[in-house]
Amino acid sequence: MSKLDYRMVSNQTQWGGVAASKTLATFEGAMADSSAGPLFLLLPANPSVGDHISVKDASGSFATNNVTVTGNGNTIDGATTLVLSTNNDSKVLVWTGVEWKVDASRSQQGGGG
Predict the structure, then answer these.
(1) In the prediction, which pLDDT does 109 show?
(2) Which residue, among 41, 64, 57, 44, has the nearest Cα to 89 in the 3D structure?
């Protein structure tokens, strides 16, 4: 597999607040507020190579109320779900054509912005 040019697609991210469970759209950036309770986010069912989704802890409450990201029939790094359970976590998921992968170069665990 060739290396994707993530710099090109990063400018396409459309950020917005998420305080309820929902299906995410391609290139969506979810500023997730789980302060009122756990959230469940569903990834797009028919992604194209290079599509990406970003999820950021907007309320610093992922440890208290986890956010579960589900692959919608596809896997995420070999699993059916990805549970975000660290406060201030930030993950970028990229579709490889086979599965969703966490892009470690653009994700932070428990860090700032």
Answers:
(1) 67
(2) 57
Which domain CATH number covers 70?
A: 2.60.120.640
Q: Tokens 């994707």 belong to which residue?
A: 4
| Cα(7)–Cα(81) distance, integer angstroms | 26
Q: Determine, yes or no, domain membership for 108.
A: no
Question: For 36-73, what is each residue's pLDDT tens digit?
Answer: 999 999 999 999 999 999 999 999 999 999 999 999 99
What is the pTM assigned to this prediction?
0.82
Which parts of 1-113 fold into alpha helices (H)? Answer: 6-10
In a domain, 111, yes or no: no
Asked if 27 and 8 touch (Cβ cutoff 8 Å), the reply is: no
Terminal-to-terminal C-alpha distance of the chain: 30
Total domain count for the chain?
Answer: 1
Work out the number of other CB atoms within 10 angstroms of the CB of residue 22: 14
